[in-house]
Amino acid sequence: MKIKKSITFISLASTALLLGACGSDDSAEDGDKSLGEQLDYTITGIEPGAGITATTELALEEYDNLDGWELETSSTAGMMGQLDSAIDNEEPLVITGWTPHYMFEQYNLKFLEDPEGVYGEPEFVHTMARQGFEEDMPQAYAIMDNFSWEVEDMQSIMLAAQDMSFEEAAADWIEENQDTVDSWTEGVDEADGQELELGSFPWDSERASSAVISQVLTEHGFDVTVNNVDPSILFQALAQGEVDVTAAPWLPTTQGAYLEEYGDEIVDMGPNMEGTVIGLVVPEYMEIDSIADLEPAE
């Protein structure tokens, strides 16, 4: 009986070793794969209509080493889900990314160098108004003209808004940064319930800024309505006077075409934020630094 038990134990142990060896071979095979093979020569993107999507499609054409690569479009939420999973498992992933975005507050990420300059230089977020806005609402114009903040400010609100509403996150930021807010409203008389249409985009970055601005303007006596629309619609609405003001446009690259089309009918009040960047992003743990380091598909 003891002999049978010993034989059974040895047999089970041998089977476990065999299975373990097979698993090791699979792991070794995965380790032998190139980065491109591990990624299935795919860049993970966001919505098809986004400016960064069009720019990345251009990058696929401009970079010879990206021959055979594809851009997988889905949604910002879908891309973030894949990023969360990759980070949790320390797996490789290349995504379309931009700052400001809370992912840079949440994870250690880096932009890949862009030697071909496809993604352009760092951009600015501009404040723009309809013609006649300054004359019709001088107090609001003054506040919007003074409005200026940092990428990190916006990102902190975006991150906080993952656990609360943007309005709550904006209110907390205003309370913690009252000196900055006071610099926007200093010397500006309060309004008397004047209605104001604030234009924005349905993106987390612009939801953060519109939440802050609308609260500041409301506290200063304005009746604010926030309109979240696509960039093409917002620029047209500004040009037609249907929206009073916005702090959302990214220039000169992301929405530059719309400014070229409608610029003569819009008042550009200048940048409210500098240092925004778009490009391809990877986790810091990946040993790659440039788009040019990605190898072409075989």
From TrEMBL:
<dbReference type="GO" id="GO:0015226">
    <property type="term" value="F:carnitine transmembrane transporter activity"/>
</dbReference>
<keyword id="KW-0732">Signal</keyword>
<keyword id="KW-0813">Transport</keyword>
<dbReference type="GO" id="GO:0031460">
    <property type="term" value="P:glycine betaine transport"/>
</dbReference>
<feature type="domain" description="ABC-type glycine betaine transport system substrate-binding">
    <location>
        <begin position="34"/>
        <end position="176"/>
    </location>
</feature>
<dbReference type="Pfam" id="PF04069">
    <property type="entry name" value="OpuAC"/>
</dbReference>
<keyword id="KW-0472">Membrane</keyword>
<keyword id="KW-1003">Cell membrane</keyword>
<dbReference type="GO" id="GO:0043190">
    <property type="term" value="C:ATP-binding cassette (ABC) transporter complex"/>
</dbReference>
<dbReference type="InterPro" id="IPR007210">
    <property type="entry name" value="ABC_Gly_betaine_transp_sub-bd"/>
</dbReference>
<dbReference type="GO" id="GO:0015871">
    <property type="term" value="P:choline transport"/>
</dbReference>
<feature type="signal peptide">
    <location>
        <begin position="1"/>
        <end position="20"/>
    </location>
</feature>
<feature type="domain" description="ABC-type glycine betaine transport system substrate-binding">
    <location>
        <begin position="195"/>
        <end position="295"/>
    </location>
</feature>
<dbReference type="GO" id="GO:0005275">
    <property type="term" value="F:amine transmembrane transporter activity"/>
</dbReference>
<protein>
    <submittedName>
        <fullName>Glycine/betaine ABC transporter substrate-binding protein</fullName>
    </submittedName>
</protein>
